[in-house]
């Protein structure tokens, strides 16, 4: 009897021990939104190596500097970087009462929807011009107020959530994990430093002084007996590409040992962090591969975020590449964001084409689209009638072969018909923006068709 009791006690203690180990393992998972695999292991192994005393790679806490790009790394950057969305809204607000602003060539390009023009140049020069025009001439306090007002009222065109809620949960967990191991985390971004400093602390728990971004000179004045700083267009510093290591040196003063980015614009920062560093170092690239839950792009991004040379260099440099679709079991820090993606019911009805592959449409040649709840599609190419079938799943949509009548028309209208019908074959997803415009996009995130809704 005593032997049996002893065996039961041993067995009970063993079970309790196993349960404690299991609970400890669960509790120790600081990265629950990261799927188990090589990417998650690489992060944990690096952190353990540099933070465990006695480890050959131990780095003192004062030298544990981690730098993060923002757009496309900590939150989404599609279909436009969120600061660009703010600037565009500012332009639309101010143009009616500011003729000089409306006359600027880059403002005209923005109002015409010519995003390609704004993205030309080494640092997307047209876009930088828009940012400068809409940010300069006001006090820093007034700028802060405008950013906060915009953030409270504006929402993402696809996910229908406030922009500040569209941060990546896996990266939020990573920030917390690093801070719990005495890393000091900084944002180093091509975005405007003043724009990010308004909300960085409440969104990421990164204080304003830990934000390094693009800047222009401010001017000191006394107004109504009070000191103010005025934003200007002078001495613009673009914290992108080779500018990022420069910004790190000027504003942080210590070489990072961990760097996180998502584009070729982060390559120099990744190189500066990981090549010739006297400490163990870590580089990570977020590769956008999930069109269903977020966006999929690399070589052909919707706007910013091109990823080619950095991706090619990753293997040779030992950088870890996150496959968003494979490595993340949750995308958004706000789980409601996914449920607010485009409702397919918004598609149903009649639409008028306003643009085909960025080349516009003929003024008096109406190309139309009608989508029924069962996926049946039809309309006019501007010369012929057509019909077909679409497959719709969430915000994903694809079109089967279109059957058309065979009438002939003027050459210009026939050319538009050809572009119109060909564009449908490339469509993989849709979005409806805040102005009720329908965009059909291809697998690279490019808009191939834009429609306005037709009244019944």
UniProtKB/TrEMBL annotation:
Keywords: Hydrolase, Signal, Stress response. One of its GO terms (molecular function) is hydrolase activity. The keyword Signal applies. Residues 1-27 form the signal peptide. Residues 349-451 form the DUF306 domain. It holds the Pfam family HAD. It comes from the Bacteria. This is Heat shock protein HslJ/phosphoglycolate phosphatase-like HAD superfamily hydrolase. It comes from Aporhodopirellula rubra.
């Amino acid at each position: 009897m005593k032997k049996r009791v002893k065996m039961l006690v041993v067995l009970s203690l063993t079970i309790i021990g196993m349960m404690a180990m299991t609970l400890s393992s669960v509790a120790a998972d600081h990265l629950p939104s990261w799927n188990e695999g090589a990417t998650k292991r690489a992060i944990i192994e690096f952190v353990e190596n540099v933070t465990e005393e006695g480890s050959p790679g131990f780095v003192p806490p004062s030298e544990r500097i981690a730098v993060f790009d923002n757009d496309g790394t900590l939150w989404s950057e599609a279909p436009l970087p969120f600061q660009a969305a703010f600037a565009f809204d500012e332009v639309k607000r101010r143009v009616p009462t500011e003729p000089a602003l409306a006359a600027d060539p880059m403002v005209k390009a923005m109002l015409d929807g010519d995003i390609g023009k704004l993205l030309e140049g080494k640092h997307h020069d047209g876009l930088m011009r828009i940012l400068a025009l809409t940010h300069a001439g006001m006090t820093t306090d007034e700028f802060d107020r405008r950013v906060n007002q915009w953030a409270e009222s504006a929402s993402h065109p696809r996910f229908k959530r406030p922009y500040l809620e569209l941060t990546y949960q896996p990266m939020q967990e990573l920030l917390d994990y690093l801070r719990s191991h005495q890393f000091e985390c900084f944002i180093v971004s091509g975005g405007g430093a003043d724009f990010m400093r308004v909300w960085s602390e409440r969104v990421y728990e990164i204080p304003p002084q830990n934000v390094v971004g693009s800047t222009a000179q401010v001017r000191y004045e006394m107004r109504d007996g009070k000191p103010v700083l005025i934003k200007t267009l002078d001495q613009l510093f673009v914290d992108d590409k080779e500018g990022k290591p420069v910004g790190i040196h000027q504003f942080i003063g210590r070489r990072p040992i961990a760097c996180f980015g998502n584009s070729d614009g982060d390559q120099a920062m990744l190189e500066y962090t990981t090549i010739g560093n006297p400490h163990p170092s870590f580089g990570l690239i977020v590769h956008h591969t999930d069109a269903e839950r977020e966006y999929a792009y690399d070589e052909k991004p919707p706007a910013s975020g091109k990823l080619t040379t950095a991706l090619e260099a990753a293997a040779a440099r030992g950088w870890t590449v996150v496959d968003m679709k494979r490595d993340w079991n949750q995308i958004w820090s706000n789980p409601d964001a996914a449920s607010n993606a485009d409702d397919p019911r918004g598609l149903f009805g009649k639409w008028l084409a306003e643009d085909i592959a960025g080349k516009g449409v003929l003024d008096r040649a109406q190309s139309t689209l009608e989508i029924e709840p069962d996926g049946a599609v039809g309309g006019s190419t501007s010369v012929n009638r057509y019909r077909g079938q679409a497959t719709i799943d969430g915000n994903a949509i694809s079109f089967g072969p279109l059957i058309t009548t065979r009438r002939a028309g003027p050459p210009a209208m026939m050319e538009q018909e050809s572009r119109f019908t060909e564009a449908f074959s490339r469509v993989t997803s849709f979005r409806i923006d805040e102005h009720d415009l329908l965009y059909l996009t291809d697998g690279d995130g490019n808009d191939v068709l834009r429609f306005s809704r037709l009244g019944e």
